[in-house]
What does this fold into?
Amino acid sequence: MIIGPNGAGKTTLFNVITGELSPSSGKVYLFSRDVTKMKCHGRTHLGLGRTFQIIDLFPDFTVMENTLLALQAHETSCFCMIRPLSSYRDMYDRGRVLLERFNLWEKRDFPISTLSHGEMRHVELILGLAMKPRILLLDEPTAGLTASESQKLASLIQSLDRNITLVMIEHDMKVAFALAERMIVLHNGEILADGEPEKIRANPKIREVYLGERVKG
It folds into this structure.
């Protein structure tokens, strides 16, 4: 779990990991492989997935069409432009499994623009999982959600395959502490603290500076 105030460098860190930004120094390793100069799509094919803080979906496409595009990205058929997507039965079956898991199968033919904000967040997570990631980066998945929606999404995240390593940026501290096994606190692009959630919660400096708690002397 990555936490820290606005401007701490959290999303920038994700952009460096995924290859959207080049590091000013140092190297990026993915599965013990130096990927510093590797393009984004190359890292994706190695098993790196990501969702975004700002929802990035095709609003006029249906829920199923968005899902199929994500599934197709890892197939050799992704370059067969003259073949209709409906002909890929195996991808439809995989898409159905994902949509049913997130209770969106009944809305498979709905345009993304007709969904609630919470449902769009679910679709973002579905697209991340469609890539069969070994590591999945989640950039503020509960942003803009109500308390009940955040709790529901947190439960879904908690139920994901434990073989997938999740790295998550989160501002909702209730969600962050409920999900995290390890927390890193960033401040001005540097690591302020790193450790188990209870160690972070007990850190007087973090409690006062970031969590907003007054520590008695």
User: Anything to note?
Assistant: The chain is about 40% helix and 15% strand.
